[in-house]
Write a structure and sequence with these properties.
single chain; about 210 residues; alpha+beta
Amino acid sequence: MTFMSQFTSIHLDILKEIGNIGSGNAATALSKLLNKKIEMRVPNVKIVSFDEMMEMAGGAENVVASVFLRIEGEIPGSMFFVLPLRQATHFIQQMIGDINFSFEEPPYNEIALSAFQELGNILSGSYLTALSDFTDLSLYPSVPALGIDMVGAIISFGLIEHSQVSDYAIVIDTSLNEEGSTDSERVKGHFFLLPDPSSFQILFDALGVAKT
């Protein structure tokens, strides 16, 4: 039996519920920040291999905007929030009120970079708070690091920098948009949560669901 096959739909349903709680908190914070109603949802949660994670982000050579942070505490690991450049540009345009901004070509506007870091802060912080509250585990996020680069370079740097190797990732799909926007305008990204090898068992023990 493979490692991933040991996790059931119950595990994923719990993680999705945690994601929805976190997205609700993030939507409230973003709505206050932007002074407009923001809707967020988590349509799907998966546990995938490292290679599958790369493919979900468009392939190792696909250029994306990302926020990376380390999770310290009782279930240490790494977290990446990844958005396609076009969708990151669209949302940051809303945040800073500049329809001419783009992530396509450097140099990047410092205000826009700060806004993207704040977006990452809000989203990752809201999810980790929900995860901590649900599991009663202590989690401490590091200061987020921004990256505009190929998926493979961003993720490899983040993991190698901290000498951590993870074969599997929890993928939390994230969808956010301004209230009243169409589905085509919805910003769709991914959270990649990569618990350190010893953290998976601690996480699921804390959730109260034993591996089968």
